[in-house]
Amino acid sequence: RAKELGKNRYHLFDTAQDEAVKAQRENLEDIRNALDNQQFVLYYQPKVNMKTGIVIGVEALIRWQHPERGLLSPIEFLPVIENNPMSYEMGEWVIDTALSQISEWQRTGLNLPVGISVNITAAHLQHPNFSKMLAQKLAAHPEVDPHYLELEVLETSALDNIKDVTSIMNVCIGLGVNFALDDFGTGYSSLTYLRRLPANLIKIDQSFVRDMLHDTDDLAIIEGVIALAKSFKREVIAEGVETKEHGSALLQLGCELAQGYGIAKPMPAEQIPAWIISWVPDKSWTQQL
Ligand code: C2E
Ligand code: MG
Ligand code: MG
Ligand code: MG
């Protein structure tokens, strides 16, 4: 009884902050369990050349197959583990799973050597063991040509510590992998910075693509990024291509690579081979060229 009273009194002094700490701890425990019980899955979204019809690869996007809440998107759980070592564990799982997937697609004999890009946080990339870990994962998959693995790093975070990030990127490139700068245009890249970062692919952020048909500022940014990529001999891909109007506008601007719901939504691995075989670029996209 005394214990009960004490408990109640304690509750009187509970603050919202205590509740938040408790919620965060519970969320972390849930993710711990999810990792242990293999509840995470990778979905894959095709990246295509709208002009040639070639599927250039797929991007791996993590999902949580939650037993009660269904399929959860990364914004629901990545922020929870942002400053937790579990984020490294998850990042390693993503790399592992992507390498196994490349290997499986190669083995199925569909003549589909499909490259996979994975999203890597800047914190993970800068972890002292990152390149060693990557080398070990690649060594565990000798059948996979490392060129089929691409690491996507956010433009904003790559620039935060450009010197260190550049040297780690170069070590990883030495192992054979490629880099892409994700959400490009949202950061503060100067020409000098972009030139120093050894990423061979620039991904135009979807926010610019979304409004490019109505907003002349966004259109100008897209034109600028395409010109920038051309002069530095980088590839450029548009994210968030939702309609054929976006697709044909981008083609007219000289951006042939695209990814977005207008081409395909992220899908489970099993659906990828059939999708690739059946995909033909929409003629109406290229008609106006
Ligand atoms: P991102 O890397 O920029 O990925 C693109 C996001 O846009 C994905 O959301 C994708 O489903 C969505 N998307 C693709 N096409 C369209 C479109 O046409 N319209 C719209 N509105 N959205 C489109 P998703 O899968 O929810 O992922 C969100 C972000 O979470 C990713 O942005 C990435 O930063 C992060 N993320 C996803 N998977 C991983 C992962 O395995 N590791 C890490 N560290 N981050 C991840
Ligand atoms: Mg990405
Ligand atoms: Mg992006
Ligand atoms: Mg994004």
UniProtKB/TrEMBL annotation:
<feature type="domain" description="EAL">
    <location>
        <begin position="24"/>
        <end position="280"/>
    </location>
</feature>
<protein>
    <submittedName>
        <fullName>Diguanylate cyclase (GGDEF)-like protein/PAS domain S-box-containing protein</fullName>
    </submittedName>
</protein>
